[in-house]
Design a protein that fits this description.
This protein has 209 residues and is mainly alpha-helical. The protein has two domains: 1-52, Arc Repressor Mutant, subunit A (Orthogonal Bundle); 55-204, Tetracycline Repressor, domain 2 (Orthogonal Bundle). Helix content is 71%, strand content 0%. It contains twelve helices and no strands. The protein has helices spanning 6-24, 34-39, 45-48, 55-80, 86-98, 101-108, 111-116, 120-144, 150-164, 167-171, 175-183, 193-204.
Length: 209
Amino acid sequence: MPKGSPELTQARREEIVDACEKLYQTMSFKEITLKEIGNVTSFTRTSIYNYFQTKEEIFLALLKREYELWIASLKEAMERTETMTREEFAAMLAHSLEERAQLLKIMSMNHYDMETGSRPEHLEAFKVVYGESIRTVTAGLDKYFSDMTVSQKQDFIYTFFPFMFGIYPYTFVTEKQRAAMEKANVNYVFMTIYEITYNCVRKLLEGSK
């Protein structure tokens, strides 16, 4: 780790993550390299190794930041409202993910590579935030659906969180993919992030009050 204040170190890390995020708007995970990231930072590619050893670690840091933003929006929404119906809770979760398309995009692409290509300390830092996201959604179930059993809440969590990995590829389809499905006569219903998330959460909450 380079010498300097913790504030400088964090600022450099954020600059690298910001550069990765900027590139990810127009390039794929495979196309982005440490060299490309270095080209849009204020320091050299060699300096990046002082903070991240692989691009997977940088993407994992970006994913961690996206989770943190999602968690903050969920907590804010739940602090504002003392009671929610099933429909309102489904809408709240759906809106929160509608605003975090980048979170869903990163989750759906190369997640395994990001984790296996990162050092343990980076992976642990990410898992801490991931765990907090699960606790935050669980807190919502505790607050608004007191009739749900522990088993029902666990079923919700272990259905909803894996489901999130498929939201982006199902709702963002390229023209090439669209044309291929039409030629293959695939009966595909195009849905938005909000629609697919709302429908999933409503079905998971069936039976709760």
